[in-house]
Amino acid sequence: MAEIVNLRMARKAKARAIKEAAAEESRVRHGLSRAERLAADRVRQQETRHIEGHRRLPAAGAPDEAPEE
User: Fold this and answer.
1) What is the value of pTM for the model shown?
2) What separation in angstroms does the CA of 37 have from each of 41, 42, 50?
3) Which of 6-10, 26-30, 52-56, 65-69 has the lowest mean pLDDT?
4) CA 11 to chain centre
5) What is the DSSP string of 15-61?
6) Residue 32 contacts by C-beta under 8 Å, 6 or more apart in sequence?
7) What is the Cα–Cα distance from 15 to 9, expressed in whole angstroms?
8) How far is CA 44 from the centre of its chain?
9) What is the pLDDT of residues 44-53, one digit of tens each?
10) What was the pLDDT predicted at 28?
């Protein structure tokens, strides 16, 4: 005798599998590996530190912002 299958659950499982396959294809096509993402983050942090290290400080006694009223 055949196994009884809940059609609703089978349909949802099939839809999830199709979506997962499409997501995997998209990740392969457009995504970066973890190592590439971490390397890009490191470079971005180094650039930020470099720029922040050259930032001019406001003159002593000069207001930082306009007073709020």
Assistant:
1) 0.43
2) 6, 9, 20
3) 65-69
4) 31
5) HHHHHHHHHHHHHHHH---HHHHHHHHHHHHHHHHHHHHTPPPPPTT
6) 40
7) 10
8) 14
9) 999 999 999 8
10) 83
Q: Say if residues 64 and 58 touch (Cβ distance below 8 Å).
A: yes
Four-point Cα dihedral 40, 43, 47, 52, nearest 10: 90
Give the separation between CA 69 and CA 2, rounded to whole angstroms: 78
C-alpha 15/C-alpha 44 separation (Å) is 39
Q: Which positions ≥6 away from 58 have C-beta within 8 Å?
A: 64
Q: CA 47, CA 50: separation in Å to the nearest integer? A: 5
